[in-house]
Design brief:
Layout: E1 4-11, H1 28-40, E2 41-47, H2 48-57, H3 70-75, E3 77-81, E4 93-96, H4 100-109, E5 114-118, H5 122-129, E6 135-141, E7 143-144, E8 159-168, E9 174-180
Parallel strand pairs: 1-5, 1-6, 2-3, 2-5, 3-4
Antiparallel strand pairs: 7-8, 8-9
Organism: Micromonospora coriariae
GO molecular function, one term: 5-amino-6-(5-phosphoribosylamino)uracil reductase activity
Protein name: Dihydrofolate reductase
Length: about 180
């Protein structure tokens, strides 16, 4: 059975929307892990909001540059969970019909490699409740973006941080210690 892997970029204050804040952190190490994920996956699953953002961005990127990942994203088989999208324009995209849990159960039962899912919202929550998500990978970025419940008292406060220490406990708790970024 295929595995469904969710990979989500997130800030320290829990923001996952419009992850433009990831750019300064997408170094060789991050590119390597991203490439491992895509090489292991021959299909991608997303909700409508993720589809709307990715289907605009990826087709504009240069597929001949292997560092962009555009060739993968533009050509991999894509599945969108949506009740309103009827005619997807992004290459090789199929809208899942009917019950989401049934549709994803069928996808996972097919022969193939992993199914990668980006973004974290109602689709992911429903699939986790149904026991269909095999792994969640949070890419925690050392920034406060504002707009989440954690930073609501700070309104539109934004900041970047330097990593000081990381401790991974056997229980799965990760303690990441950061200091406010020093001016260069």
């Amino acid at each position: 059975m295929r595995k469904l892997i969710n990979s989500t970029y997130i800030t320290l204050d829990g923001v996952i929307d419009n992850p433009m804040w990831t750019s300064p952190y997408f170094d060789e190490e991050a590119m390597s892990l991203a490439a491992e994920q895509t090489e292991a996956a021959d299909a991608m699953l997303m909700g409508r909001a993720t589809y709307d953002g990715m289907s605009v961005a990826w087709p504009r990127m240069d597929e001949s540059d292997p560092n962009t990942g555009a060739a993968y994203f533009n050509n991999v088989k894509k599945y969108v969970a949506s009740t309103t999208l009827t005619d997807p324009t992004w290459n090789n995209t199929e809208v899942l019909q009917g019950d989401l849990v049934e549709a994803v159960t069928k996808l996972k039962a097919q022969e193939g490699r992993d199914i990668i899912q980006y973004g974290f919202g109602s689709v992911t929550a429903e699939l986790i409740r149904a026991g269909l998500v095999d792994e969640v990978r949070f890419w925690i970025h050392p920034v406060l973006e504002g707009g989440s419940s954690l930073t609501a008292p700070l309104n539109d406060f934004k900041a970047s941080f330097d990593l000081v220490d990381t401790r991974v406990h056997k229980s799965g708790v990760i303690i990441a210690s950061y200091r406010p970024e020093t001016a260069a």
